[in-house]
Amino acid sequence: MWTLAIELLLVVSGPPEAHSLHEEQTIRSEKLNFVLISDDGRHIAALGPGGFKLWERNPVHLIGTFGDPASRANAWWFTAWAFSPDGKTLAVSDVEGTVGLYGTQRADLARRLTVSESSVSSLAFSPDGRLLGITSADHLVRIWDVVANRLLWVSPGAPIGFMRDVAFSPDGGKIAAVADDANVYVWDVSTGTLSNTFEDTLMASFGLAFTRDGKHLMVGGASSEIFVLNLSAGTLEQTFGRERNVVASLKLSPRGDMVASRYRNPADTAKPAPIIVWDIASGKAKFKLEIPNTHFGAVSWNESGMFVTSWSDGGLHVWTVPRLSNGGKPR
Amino acid sequence: MGHNHSRRDVLQMCTALAGLTLTTSRSTEAAIDLTQEAQKKICPTPRAVVGPFYKKSAPKRHVLRTTSDPGLPLSVNGRVFGARGEALDGATIEVWHADHFGRYDVDGYQFRATLVAGAEGKYGFESIMPGHYPDRVAQHVHYLINARGHKPLVTQLYFATDQVFEGNPGKNFRRDPLVPSADVVRPVVLTGDPNKVWAAVVFDLCLEPL
Predict the structure, then answer these.
(1) A203 and B106: CB-CB below 8 Å?
(2) Which whole number is the average pLDDT over A159-181?
(3) Does residue B103 sit at the A interface (CB-CB below 8 Å)?
(4) What is this model's ipTM?
């Protein structure tokens, strides 16, 4: 059984600029496969052999368990997950192409969407929480209206590539996906038409984030770099962020002036890899955050600070970084 | 195995050795012919995922290995054809794989190449046997093939000698969930002489029309 305990630790990061990680919460548990955290930092969800478990973070309180612990839930059964922007819903997809929408108040299943005959590969809520963007192994993109409970459109995705991440623009008007064919695709949400295909990147991107004004898209992946794409010009505008590890995900700061890139060691995913916070305007690394001996989970970032989840044999960990200030203007 | 064996003998021994054939260079051609004949019926070639380490613009070359690269030398040959059996001369074939230690080169183009099918749709390249990539079960070579009038084909070549198949790829290919079919697990012919052994594999590719 999973048991809970809380520990508080102070950790210091390394260069480019030392930055304190203020607190670590450890929730002891059985073996884990992934840990994510809501944007508001209030909820933590962890995937383990018995399915998902959901906690209130502060104070730590187990809300419930869901999934199918009796037979099917394991490391590969669940494929993607996302909290809604208000933190009230957790969407979890599986290899059978369904998406479960769980309420975070009681970890109850509100609805199950039958989306695709193929495994779902990535999920993202629109900023208003009304729409769910879904990519799947059939290389298609779907927009689901979760309020009206209907499929809005299906659009061809990457012709030959598996899509690993998807994101809405801040105004909800665009949705973008990155694919293993090394291209980046952008669609108009209202019409489902493909508005941009970026072919300038040589290797696949695994993470993406729009800038706050929605005019640029940042992507990063196998090449270890971060590319800033100009949506109106359709061009690659800036490249920064060479690291030894691959970029696993990107997270925009609440002010929109910085982006946090979470890295992953391509040769050994169990080895620690850093989070680097980049100043978008200059392309310079501002902070480097290192968490030893744990698998990175997810990053959330709001006005009160950055939350980073990770897991190890000892359980799941939540690291909080105090408010990061750049002094610059948002893009 | 000697070079005077019949084609049937070679095929039977391939089966008995679970896809591994030991041969002198003179019989290599016969063994390759056999595996090629056996594979012609598989159309279209089963698809596999692109994977996260595809890199565009790989150089056009057919020798991917250097003398200093560790690993068993590997020679892959085959043909590209359409659903009616027509040779697809001029098809482009992009291949990429991990090094002997299971690492992909993301900085440059080591073990990456773009090939162009020649007369009768023939292609070939010289490399090394890939290592086991940590996140994958089986050794493999990635393929992306484009030919005019045909759907792009993404597939992967696997090796019957891979220990994960325990000598029976037909039964055990699902041990790697990304292997779509035993048809893409190909027999390996070990050839050369005791001082210079290399692995020879035939992998034909069949594309669907648009």
Answers:
(1) yes
(2) 96
(3) yes
(4) 0.84
Is the Cβ of A57 closer than 8 Å to some Cβ of chain B?
no
Place of tokens 């560790």: B70
**H helix or E strand, kind and range, residue A163:** strand A163-168
Which helix (H) or strand (E) segment holds residue A321: the answer is strand A315-321
pLDDT in tens, A83-118: 999 999 999 998 889 999 999 998 889 999 999 999
- Put simply, the answer to whether A181 touches B53 (Cβ < 8 Å) is no
Q: Give me the residue from A159, A162, A182 closest to B56, CB to CB.
A: A182
Residue A206 near chain B (CB below 8 Å): yes
* Residue spans of alpha helices (H) in B40-160: none
pTM: 0.86
Q: Is 60 exceeded by the pLDDT of residue A135?
A: yes
Region B142-148: mean pLDDT is 97
**Secondary element (H or E) of residue B9:** helix B7-16
Interface check for A273 against chain B (CB to CB < 8 A): the answer is no
Q: And the tokens for A328?
A: 């610059």
Q: Is A166 helix (H, G, I), strand (E, B) or coil?
A: strand
Could you tell me the strand order of the sheet in which A295-302 lies?
A23-27, A315-321, A305-312, A295-302
Point out the residue among B54, B103, B152 whose CB comes nearest to the CB of A180.
B54
3-state SS string for A63-99:
EEEECCCCCCCCCCCEEEEEECCCCCEEEEEECCCEE
- Collect all residues with Cβ–Cβ distance below 8 Å to A258 and sequence separation of at least 6: A252, A277, A278, A279, A280, A286, A324, A326
Is the minimum CB–CB distance between B47 and chain A shorter than 8 Å? no
